[in-house]
Amino acid sequence: MSDSSSADHDQMNSVINNFLKEYYRVFDENAVGLFDLYQDDAVFSMDGTKFVGKRNIVYMLNGYVFNRCAHSISKFDYHQLNNTSHGVLVTVIGTIRLSDYKTRNFSQTFRLMPNSKGRLSVANSILSMFADDEKM
């Protein structure tokens, strides 16, 4: 890797890390705040159910299952898609403590796109949660 591409990788890694920290901080404190982090026509999938549009997504995420949850990121990886206009594909692995005090492992994949302000926002997301005895 050249010095230039290494610096670009480090910068992108930092940008994504900061986005994920903000996303999960907001999610854990008050999921309604995620409204600003999703694109208007975003698509979110969980357990085979699809939610379209940021209003529907945030309504679901603010619901009973995710009320007062706590995420912990174990690791993430990303791949830039063709060019910046296609966004970045990010996969996150971690744990989530739900409002019923059960801890689950989770995997969440995002397609992040720059918004009109040049900041990353969620265009697509798939969330999978697993009990300790289930395999990811």
How would you describe the overall organization of this protein?
This is NTF2-related export protein. Residues 15-129 form the NTF2 domain. It is found in: Cytoplasm; Nucleus. This protein has 136 residues and is an alpha+beta fold. It has a single domain, classed as Nuclear Transport Factor 2, Chain: A (Roll). Helix content is 26%, strand content 42%. The chain has two helices and six strands. It has helices spanning 3-29, 54-61; strands at 38-46, 49-52, 70-80, 88-97, 103-114, 120-130. It has a six-stranded mixed beta sheet, with helices on one face. A hairpin with a 5-residue loop joins strand 4 (88-97) and strand 5 (103-114). It starts with a helix and ends in a 6-residue tail after the last strand.
